[in-house]
Each structure stands twice: as C-alpha cells, then as structure tokens.
Design goal:
single chain, alpha+beta, Diaminopimelate Epimerase, Chain A, domain 1, 18-stranded mixed β-sheet, 4 helices, globular
C-alpha cells in the first residue's frame, strides 16, 4: 500500500505522494488517475524535502511528466505546510525552476512567478474555422484563443482536442485556452489540457498565459480576477520580490481534501471495450 493525499487547486485535482520509497510507474499513475475505475485525478505529484524547501515532480493523468503545473505547485505548498515542512512560506523546486509560495490562509496559496513570455500570434484552421490565437510559453506550452462572445458555449472539448495536436506545436502538442476578456480587470477562461486530454476545472498556467495575452493586446491590466470552470476565482497581480524584481503573483484556492492508502488492486484496470 502507498500513503497518498488528495488535493484540489481551484478544481484542478491531484494525487500526491510525500517522500515515497520509490517512484510509481507511468502505468500506475495512469491507472490511479483514471476516473470511475480508480481514484481519479487530473494528475499526480511527488513531493520531497530539499535544501531550498521542497522539490516536486509532476505527472499528467496519462502518466507523462510535465515540467510545470502551477495549480499542482500551489497544492504542493499547501501539502508542505500540512506536513510541517514550512509555516507560511516555502520555495518549491519544479522542472521549470524555483518558485516561492506563500500560504497565509489555510485554503489559499500565492505563487511568485516570472512574467510569461511574449505572446506570438499564430493563425490556424480547425473544423472549418480560421482561428486567431497566441502561443505563450509558461513553463509548458499554451495556445490562447480570445473568445469575445463568452466562453459558456465555447467548443472546448471538440476544438481543444483538435488543436492540442496540431502540427504547428510539434510532437509535444499544447494546452488550449479559450479566453473572454470581460473588462479591464476581469477574465473568464476554459482550458483543454494535454496529458489529461479533456477540459479541466482550472489550469494555473492557462490563467497566466491568458492574462499575458490580454495585457499584450491592451484588453487587460493588472490586477486581474479570473473565473475558471470550477467556479473559483484566481487573482493575478504584481509582485515585488525581496530582491526588488518585478514578478507576477498567482493567488487562488488550494486545499487538502483527504489522505489514505492506495490499496492493492487500485491499478488493475480492464481493457477498454472494442466499441468504445
């Protein structure tokens, strides 16, 4: 059996293993994250203590590794506090570098982040539509599509699945965001995440990428309140580091939901039926 924690970052849910004796295999991660047949989650991260604070390794629901997941990182901050590794502030080592995090409230975590790279205009054709979107690197790739009519009826699943593997993004593919710039300080967003291969209730890197596009287009200015599919609001604002560097802060809900044991058999899944 393995001891595990379940956490949620604004609706992005994760399984977490703290200082595991050995690493789970991609097959195990894929099985445990399968909804309905096992525990179910958008991803899994491993958390270990480190000289800087804590080190996390994140894996998508399909078992693939990801350099960065900001909601996962915020959950890592929350878990580290629960484990007594930190009081209210800790630095999390990720595949994309060191990220300072603070948990001043028990269900809220803020990360201090480098501003995303400059958005790059990329027009694509998909399902008979000519789309004007923007590539934005935020540790992981994102393609942000401004959706001025509102995201309630945006074709996130169908269009997101198509664009996620568009040749323009190479073999790695991309995450796809549908962003509605509601007003100068307000954004609505829905995201199709690669590795999960579906829409998720929230995506931290998608929030950052979409705010970066809105600011570059002159549609947004910080601070920005962001509403995601899960119903939680995120806040993106200016952050000045102890060294005086200008950063962006990402604040949102991050909570510990449960802990328990993964018992033998939780990874024994059937083959999907041939007519699926």
């Amino acid at each position: 059996m393995r001891h595990f924690f379940r956490l949620s970052g604004g609706g992005n849910d994760f399984l977490a293993l703290a200082e595991p004796i050995d690493d789970p295999t991609p097959e195990q991660i894929r099985a445990w994250c399968h909804r309905g047949l096992s525990l179910g989650a958008d991803g899994l991260f491993l958390l270990n203590r480190s000289p800087d604070g804590a080190r996390m390794r994140h894996f998508n629901a399909d078992g693939s590794a990801a350099e960065l997941c900001l909601n996962g990182t915020r959950c890592a901050v929350r878990l580290a506090r629960h484990l007594g590794w930190a009081d209210k502030e800790i630095v999390i080592e990720t595949g994309a570098g060191l990220i300072p995090g603070s948990s001043l409230e028990i269900t809220s975590v803020t990360l201090a982040l480098e501003r995303p790279g400059d958005p790059e205009l990329l027009e694509l054709e998909a399902e008979g539509e000519q789309l004007k979107g923007f590539k934005v690197p935020v540790g992981v790739p994102h393609y942000v599509i401004p959706w001025p009519e509102g995201v309630a009826r945006a074709p996130v699943e169908s269009l997101g699945r198509h664009l996620r593997s568009d040749p323009a993004f190479g073999d790695a593919g991309t995450n796809v965001d549908f962003a509605h710039f509601v007003e100068r300080h307000r954004l609505d967003i829905r995201t199709y995440e690669r590795g999960v291969e579906n829409e998720t209730l929230a995506c931290g890197t998608g929030v950052m990428a979409s705010v970066a596009v809105g600011v570059a287009l002159g549609e947004l200015e910080l601070p920005v309140t962001v509403l995601t599919r899960g119903g939680f609001q995120f806040e993106v604002g200016s952050w000045i580091s102890a060294k005086g560097d200008a950063l962006w802060g990402l604040k949102g809900d991050a909570r510990l939901l449960a802990e328990g044991e993964i018992v033998e058999g939780a990874e024994d899944l059937p083959e999907p039926p041939p007519w699926r």
